[in-house]
Structure formats: structure tokens, C-alpha cells
């Protein structure tokens, strides 16, 4: 998958040259925080001897037993949700790559623990996430590692315990790169400033990336969702993502289309699917209903196809029917149907009309 967007150089906010071998800095401030220049292993060992084993609970130690042996190049952790993989995340990766091997640390089960809507779909499906990270890794010349921890296992840790048990003891990381608004620890007690303070005696490098703006918009996954869901503004979303937003769904056989449309209850716009090819079971976040210019790729076909598609949001009572009934109707595309068709990817290029 080609990465479309601003080049690496345009995302930099300051020089790559570090003034100190163990920087703990916050981008945008006049003077960076500075950590101890002792070796990482020595600083961590001294801290463990000073603190003893009482800082961690027995339960947390059993859960967070270390499984990682330090590599030749130090690991730099990037904790977060990474829902959309936007250009802000790419800048975090740039910073991490300058310090060592970048490691994305995500937490599974957050939605269930925090009470998020179970119908909330991710912005990316797994295969696309892997493709994007592989492309970013090629651009940066680094292999990007991904690690996941159950959120329920670390939610009760204090900020100090999170640093010691997760960052230092489990992953043996030598540094952390995060956004200015990252929170961690029990009830989000820890902030980026807390991280910098705790990093000093542990010999950890920290780089905090300040707010990033593109086209006068703050780059965030929440903002991308808002642009897509409220306005259908796929062009502004592309400016924040660095690529066009894509949807993934299952192609419905024409013989089943009429039955599917009879079940479907959409918006007040009349939908004619008689000549269209329908996609259902959309796996990721569904934007505003309407008609879009699209680039479509069917599984098993290398050449993409261009055309118009109508996105139809289900108006079923979601409390009674939790099925994913959102539809994508590829206009005048029924002649493309083949028996071996499975799924397709629809890239949204431009909004045409409601």
C-alpha cells in the first residue's frame, strides 16, 4: 500500500541532533528535560536496589513476567490506542526511530473495561494496519514492533508501578515516546510531565511530542472520526491520515441483493440497488451516508476500478438488532460479479452528494 501524504522531513519540529546522550525532552519547550547520562542498565539496577521489591504487588508481578530479552538496539516504547494511524503517530515513530527500535504498545479490552459502546468499530482492520506499519517502516528504515497487554491487567497500577513493571521490567525499554496528552496509571493519574519526572532516576529517555496541526486542524483519531461521520469530508481526513480512508466489506451475490435490500431500512434517500453490486458486513468505522467517488479493489484482482458508490447507514433499532446492516452500493457494477468474489476494499476519494 502506497503511503500518501507529507514527507518525513515536513513533519519534523526540531533538529535531529541531541544535546545530551540521555535526553528527556518535551517538544516545543525552550529547555529540554535532561536525564542522567549513566548507562541505562546501571541506572535501572541502582533504582531497583534503592526501591526494593515492595513497590510491586504480587498479582501484578505474576501478570507482567518479563518475556523480552533486550536486543542490540534499545527498545523505545510508544504506548497508546493508535486507532487511526494518522500523521501524528508517524511523527511519534520518527522520534522513536532516532532513539532505537520503535515498539507500539497497545492495550486490549479497553472498551469493555471503560464501558465503550460495543458496536463501535475500529478505524482499521488488522491487515490494513499491518500494511500501513510495514510501509512506514520502509520509509523510516526500521522494523516496527507491536506489543499488546490486556488493559484489565495494568489498569490498577500506579504511574510508578506502570513505569517499573511494564516499561522497565517487562519490556526492558530504554525510553518512551508519547503525545503531550497521554495519560497512564490508575484513573489516568500520570501525565507526560509525570513520565518525565519518573524517568530521571530510572535512566529512561523520554520524548513528548506536542500538538500537531494540519490544515489548521489538530491531528487526532477523534478528529478523523468527526470529519468522516459528521461531514463525510474524506479530503480533510486524508490530510490528517496521510492516505485516503478505506472501507472493507463482503460482496453480496446479485441473487441475494433483493432480499438484503428488503431487510434494510435506510435514510430518507431512495436507494436503487437493482444494477449495483452490494457490500455488507463492513468491518471498520462507517462514515456519513452519501454518494462518493471511489477506487475499488476486489480480492484476487490486482487492478483497481474507479466509480461511484453510495454509502447507506442502517436505521434499524440497534438496541433490538445488533447486526451490521450498513451497505455500500457500487453503482452500475453488477456485471462485475463473479462466483469466486469474496471481499472488496473501497477507497473513498471525494464526497459527491448526500
Give a verbal description of the structure.
The protein is an alpha/beta fold and 354 residues long. The protein has 2 domains: 18-211, HUPs (Rossmann fold, 3-Layer(aba) Sandwich), CATH 3.40.50; 245-353, Elongation Factor Tu (Ef-tu), domain 3 (Beta Barrel). Helix content is 29%, strand content 23%. The chain has 11 helices and 15 strands. It has helices spanning 40-51, 58-63, 87-99, 110-114, 126-140, 151-154, 159-170, 192-199, 221-231, 234-241, 254-263, and strands spanning 23-26, 33-34, 75-79, 101-108, 145-150, 175-179, 205-209, 213-214, 217-218, 246-251, 277-280, 290-298, 305-312, 327-330, 343-353. Strands 2-1-7-6-3-4-5 form a 7-stranded mixed beta sheet. A 6-stranded antiparallel barrel has the order 10-11-14-13-12-15. A two-stranded antiparallel sheet has the order 8-9. The longest helix has 15 residues, at 126-140. Keywords: ATP-binding, FAD, Flavoprotein, FMN, Nucleotide-binding, Nucleotidyltransferase, Transferase.
Task: Return the CATH class of the largest domain.
Answer: Alpha Beta
Mean pLDDT, all residues: 78
- Global morphology: elongated
Number of helices: 11
H/E series: EEHHEHEHHEHHEHEEEHHEHEEEEE
Q: Based on the structure given, which CATH architecture of the largest domain is correct? A: 3-Layer(aba) Sandwich
Please give the radius of gyration in angstroms.
23 Å
What is the third-level CATH name, the topology of the largest domain? Answer: Rossmann fold
Poorly predicted residue ranges: 1-23, 28-71, 266-270, 317-322
Counting DSSP E segments of at least 2 residues, the number of strands comes to: 15
Major sheet, described briefly?
7 strands, mixed
Helical residue percent band: 25-40%
Amino-to-carboxy terminus distance = 29 Å
Beta-strand percentage?
15-25%
Number of domains: 2
If strands are numbered along the chain, what order do they take across the biggest sheet? 2-1-7-6-3-4-5
Q: Structural class per helix/strand content? A: alpha/beta
Amino acid at each position: 500500500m502506497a503511503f500518501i501524504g507529507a514527507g518525513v522531513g515536513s513533519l519534523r519540529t526540531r533538529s535531529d541532533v541531541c544535546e545530551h546522550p540521555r535526553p528527556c525532552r518535551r517538544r516545543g519547550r525552550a529547555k529540554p528535560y535532561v536525564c542522567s547520562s549513566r548507562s541505562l542498565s546501571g541506572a535501572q539496577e541502582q533504582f531497583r536496589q534503592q526501591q526494593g521489591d515492595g513497590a510491586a504487588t504480587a498479582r501484578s508481578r505474576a501478570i507482567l513476567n518479563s518475556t523480552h530479552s533486550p536486543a542490540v538496539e534499545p527498545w523505545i516504547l510508544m504506548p497508546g490506542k493508535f486507532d487511526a494511524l494518522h500523521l501524528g503517530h508517524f511523527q511519534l515513530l520518527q522520534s522513536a526511530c532516532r532513539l532505537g527500535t520503535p515498539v507500539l504498545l497497545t492495550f486490549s479490552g479497553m472498551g469493555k473495561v471503560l464501558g465503550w459502546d460495543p458496536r463501535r468499530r475500529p478505524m482499521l482492520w488488522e491487515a490494513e494496519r499491518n500494511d500501513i506499519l510495514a510501509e512506514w517502516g520502509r520509509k523510516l528504515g526500521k522494523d516496527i514492533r507491536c506489543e499488546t497487554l490486556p488493559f484489565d491487567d495494568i489498569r490498577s497500577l500506579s504511574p510508578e508501578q506502570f513505569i517499573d513493571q511494564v516499561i522497565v521490567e517487562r519490556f526492558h525499554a530504554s525510553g518512551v515516546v508519547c503525545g503531550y496528552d497521554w495519560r497512564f496509571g490508575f484513573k489516568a493519574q500520570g501525565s507526560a510531565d509525570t513520565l518525565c519526572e519518573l524517568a530521571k532516576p530510572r535512566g529512561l529517555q523520554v520524548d513528548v511530542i506536542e500538538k500537531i496541526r494540519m490544515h489548521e486542524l489538530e491531528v487526532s483519531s477523534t478528529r478523523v472520526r468527526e470529519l468522516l461521520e459528521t461531514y463525510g469530508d474524506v479530503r480533510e481526513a486524508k490530510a490528517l491520515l496521510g492516505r485516503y480512508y478505506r472501507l472493507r466489506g463482503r460482496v453480496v451475490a446479485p441473487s441475494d441483493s433483493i432480499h438484503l435490500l428488503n431487510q434494510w431500512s435506510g435514510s430518507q434517500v431512495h436507494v436503487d440497488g437493482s444494477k449495483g453490486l452490494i457490500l455488507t458486513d463492513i468491518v471498520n468505522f462507517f462514515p456519513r451516508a452519501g454518494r462518493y467517488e471511489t477506487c475499488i479493489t476486489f480480492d484476487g484482482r490486482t487492478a483497481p476500478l474507479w466509480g461511484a458508490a453510495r454509502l447507506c447507514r442502517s436505521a434499524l433499532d440497534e438496541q433490538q438488532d445488533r447486526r451490521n446492516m450498513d451497505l455500500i452500493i457500487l453503482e452500475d457494477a453488477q456485471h462485475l460479479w463473479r462466483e469466486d468474489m469474496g471481499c472488496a476494499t473501497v477507497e473513498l476519494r471525494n464526497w459527491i452528494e448526500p
